[in-house]
């Protein structure tokens, strides 16, 4: 990589520093499913019971949802039997999908027919609906009126992600393999031919020895991100949606070479455009742009990855759906932007909305009003065990132990600390004291550590997260160590990059060290003018310059 790594410009441009940075692994909270018109057919009582939902169909007139009791219901026009009820009768009232009784849904996607591909929490795959192009993967071209378990070539595999194009299907297994089937007129099955694929076939070629971590489908194309952050693409390319610099179809996986040196974390596909999100919170887009769905300020198609400027804040989520020309993104600060086709208008630059999640963009502005992913709805009226414990952190009324740090008390519960942390399990075993003095760590750092034991999340500035990384290393709390590294990565900017690099070296956090080093190289001009660089440790500076020269940072 060199200092200007952004295709189309943007050298030395960094996301702004934000503090504190929230790092948590909690699920999506999306409470108002009523924003999708189809849900107006459900009563208030029924809506309260919904825990997962997917709205699909050519007019957004079909819905599948699960309830708090793990029952699956469907509702709508039932085109091609896509509700899985065994008939093609439309239903204006929710009907229970008994054939999947006892199954829990992990992920779900839909095509244009529509057809449905669903993976259970056990990793099984079920398909039903439109099947004129073998997109159900059951070896036939008969429409599937009830869910069919697809096990051919998948019998010993656990499927963890599914994606559908208009008439083809793609799944990802827990061991990083990708299987495809269905319509293949443009090579979207990745088999090297244009013959339709009636059963699951592993996508190999360039992906043969790669570990895929996430997948997506456009109308007639496929994307796969591997664990090194590279993106592989195949299928239809008439609008440049593969990002290869041309418009020729690609019958086997091909790496997007223009993203060299950029680590992609997520990919999302619209009807004929593609969005990717990098590990530095940057968004790139390419493909069709007749509605402004690339967010580049014009309506010209792009066959190469083009940076999308949303705002100075880091992007943490991108959203698109193969049945729409709409794009959306969410920033670390919680702002949601939309662009592309929005209720008939062409929005050619990211537009700040009042929404709190990207799902709302598709409910209110996409045509049709569908969901771009399986919604996960968390109840707001019931306190789970985890939520109850979160409330008890630093509560003097229920605590039986207090830590004295920097002259301030932090209140805790011995039994919880012993359950959650190996260190406390031994140190509190025979300890009758109700006060523990702590001088090795600062108050903010130690409080964040104790709070993590109650909440599984941290909320700290990158600089404070460095201190917590030290503590996590000392106590051998590996998951906390990963969260600290995540926080530091999300909060890196030119001013603090050298300090964070130094900390990564000190605490032997190799993945973080590599991330900080690449950030410094990509923003070299500005980083070398900071006070942090001027005050850099001599040995670290020597190593930095040596390593930077090896990756070509100083080439003219």
From TrEMBL:
<dbReference type="GO" id="GO:0001669">
    <property type="term" value="C:acrosomal vesicle"/>
</dbReference>
<feature type="repeat" description="RCC1">
    <location>
        <begin position="281"/>
        <end position="332"/>
    </location>
</feature>
<feature type="repeat" description="RCC1">
    <location>
        <begin position="229"/>
        <end position="280"/>
    </location>
</feature>
<keyword id="KW-0968">Cytoplasmic vesicle</keyword>
<dbReference type="Pfam" id="PF00651">
    <property type="entry name" value="BTB"/>
</dbReference>
<dbReference type="InterPro" id="IPR011333">
    <property type="entry name" value="SKP1/BTB/POZ_sf"/>
</dbReference>
<dbReference type="InterPro" id="IPR000408">
    <property type="entry name" value="Reg_chr_condens"/>
</dbReference>
<dbReference type="Pfam" id="PF00415">
    <property type="entry name" value="RCC1"/>
</dbReference>
<dbReference type="InterPro" id="IPR000210">
    <property type="entry name" value="BTB/POZ_dom"/>
</dbReference>
<protein>
    <recommendedName>
        <fullName>RCC1 and BTB domain-containing protein 2</fullName>
    </recommendedName>
</protein>
<feature type="repeat" description="RCC1">
    <location>
        <begin position="176"/>
        <end position="228"/>
    </location>
</feature>
<keyword id="KW-0677">Repeat</keyword>
<dbReference type="InterPro" id="IPR009091">
    <property type="entry name" value="RCC1/BLIP-II"/>
</dbReference>
<dbReference type="InterPro" id="IPR051625">
    <property type="entry name" value="Signaling_Regulatory_Domain"/>
</dbReference>
<feature type="repeat" description="RCC1">
    <location>
        <begin position="123"/>
        <end position="175"/>
    </location>
</feature>
<feature type="domain" description="BTB">
    <location>
        <begin position="399"/>
        <end position="462"/>
    </location>
</feature>
């Amino acid at each position: 990589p060199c200092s200007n790594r952004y295709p189309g410009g943007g050298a030395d441009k960094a996301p702004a520093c934000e503090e504190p940075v929230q790092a948590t692994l909690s699920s999506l909270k999306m409470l108002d499913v009523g924003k999708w018109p189809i849900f107006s057919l459900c009563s208030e009582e029924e809506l309260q019971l919904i825990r997962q939902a997917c709205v699909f169909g050519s007019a957004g007139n079909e819905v599948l949802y699960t309830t708090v009791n793990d029952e699956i219901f469907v509702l709508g026009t039932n085109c091609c039997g896509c509700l899985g009820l065994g008939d093609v009768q439309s239903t204006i009232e929710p009907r229970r999908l008994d054939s999947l009784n006892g199954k829990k849904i992990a992920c779900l996607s839909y095509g244009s027919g529509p057809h449905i591909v669903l993976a259970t929490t056990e990793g099984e795959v079920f398909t039903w609906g439109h099947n004129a192009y073998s997109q159900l993967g059951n070896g036939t071209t008969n429409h599937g009126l009830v869910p069919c378990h697809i096990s051919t070539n998948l019998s010993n595999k656990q499927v963890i992600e599914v994606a559908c194009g208009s008439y083809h299907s793609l799944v990802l297994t827990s061991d990083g393999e990708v299987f495809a089937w269905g319509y293949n007129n443009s090579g979207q099955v990745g088999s090297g031919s244009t013959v339709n694929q009636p059963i699951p076939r592993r996508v190999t070629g360039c992906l043969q020895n790669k570990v895929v971590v996430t997948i997506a489908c456009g109308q007639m194309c496929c994307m796969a991100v591997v664990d090194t952050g590279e993106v592989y693409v195949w299928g239809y390319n008439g609008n440049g949606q593969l990002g290869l610099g041309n418009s020729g179809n690609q019958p086997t996986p091909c790496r997007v070479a223009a993203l060299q040196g950029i680590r992609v974390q997520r990919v999302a596909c619209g009807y004929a455009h593609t969005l990717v999100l990098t590990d530095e919170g940057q968004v790139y887009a390419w493909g069709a742009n007749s509605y402004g769905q690339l967010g580049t300020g014009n309506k010209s198609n792009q066959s190469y990855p083009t940076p999308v400027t949303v705002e100075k804040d880091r992007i943490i989520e991108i959203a698109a759906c193969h049945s729409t020309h709409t794009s959306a993104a969410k920033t670390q600060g919680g702002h949601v932007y939309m662009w592309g086709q929005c209720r008939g208008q062409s929005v050619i630059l990211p537009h700040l909305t009042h929404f709190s999640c990207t799902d709302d963009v598709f409910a209110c502005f996409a045509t049709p009003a569908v969901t771009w992913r399986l919604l996960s709805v968390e109840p707001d009226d019931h306190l789970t065990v985890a939520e109850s414990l979160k409330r008890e952190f630093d509560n003097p009324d229920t605590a039986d132990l207090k830590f004295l740090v920097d002259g301030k008390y932090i209140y805790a519960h011995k039994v919880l600390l012993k359950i959650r942390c190996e260190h406390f399990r031994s140190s509190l075993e025979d300890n009758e004291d109700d006060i523990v003095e702590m001088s090795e760590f600062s108050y903010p750092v130690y409080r964040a550590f104790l709070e993590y034991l109650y909440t599984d999340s941290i909320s700290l500035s990158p600089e404070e997260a460095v201190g917590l990384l030290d503590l996590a290393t000392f106590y051998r709390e590996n998951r906390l160590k990963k969260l600290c590294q995540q926080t530091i990565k999300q909060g890196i900017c030119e001013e603090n990059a050298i300090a964070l690099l130094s900390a990564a070296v000190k605490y032997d956090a190799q993945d973080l060290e590599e991330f900080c080093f690449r950030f410094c190289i990509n923003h070299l001009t500005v980083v070398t003018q900071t006070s942090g660089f001027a005050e850099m440790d001599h040995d670290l500076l020597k190593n930095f310059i040596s390593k930077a020269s090896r990756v070509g940072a100083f080439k003219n």
